[in-house]
Each structure stands twice: as C-alpha cells, then as structure tokens.
Amino acid sequence: MGMSGMTVSYGGVVKRYSKGLTSRRCLLIFGLVLAIAGVTGFLVPSKPGDLYAMGVGQSISYLVIGLASLYVGEVWNSEYKRIFAGAIGVFFLAAAIAGFVYSHYVDSSLGMDLWVFNVEHPWENIAHILLGVIYAGTALYPRRFRDYSYGTNVSD
Known about the structure:
Elements: E1 6-10, E2 13-17, H1 23-43, H2 56-75, H3 78-105, E3 113-114, E4 117-118, H4 122-140
Antiparallel strand pairs: 1-2, 3-4
Helix pairs in contact: 1-2, 1-3, 1-4, 2-3, 3-4
C-alpha cells in the first residue's frame, strides 16, 4: 500500500504529511477566514441594503465559529475534527437554504434578518452554501490512512 504525501526526517523521527484538504487544514483555513470576517463585521459599519450587511449577531457567530474551528483543528483528534466539521457544514447549509426560502417570501426592501444572519443578497446565501459544502465535504470525504494518526507521527 503506497502512501501519498511528503515524508520528512528529523534525526530519528519520521513524519508523514498528507496532501489535500484534510479536516485539520479545513478547520484551520476556514476558521481563520471566519474569524477575520467576524472581526471585520465589528470594524466595518454596514446597514440593510449594503452590498454585504453584517449585523452584530452575524459577526459574533462568525467569530465564535472561526475561533472554535481554529481550536478544534489544532487540539482535537481526527475523529472529533470530522464530527465538528460536519456539524458546522450542516449548520451553514441549513442557514443558506433557510436564507433562500426566507428571501423568496419576504420583502427585502427593509432588510431580512434570519435569526442572526442577514440574508439580503443571494450571494450571501451562496457563500453559506460554499462554506457548508466545504466543511461537510471535508468531513464526509472517505477516511484515509492519515485519519488514524494517534501516536503515529502522521499529520492529519
């Protein structure tokens, strides 16, 4: 059985690094993106009708999800990283679908607030779909040798 990726030796320690978007990489990359988006929501003022209207609730939720993704991606083991990524993926997919349904039935001239998410523009819902597909897709991708990394010096 061949292993893909890169092998690096540090003295007597051999580490194998995997290719592709692993659960860890997904959580770290998109956790950082969401954390930056959350902080930006506090710093850049917006109101309903703007190109991207982000309220305080949406900023807080992006910041919390982003920081939680960074923590889980760095600290938890592979099995729990996959569960967390899947849950966040389902959350974003549900928010996007609810946003499309909500925006279809409600007048958008006053701004639409879906609990904590503003869903005025279809591209906001498309961004939530992309985040959901990336998170859930990474979690549901078939398990590989690197997912069994406990005590093996294999990056997951």
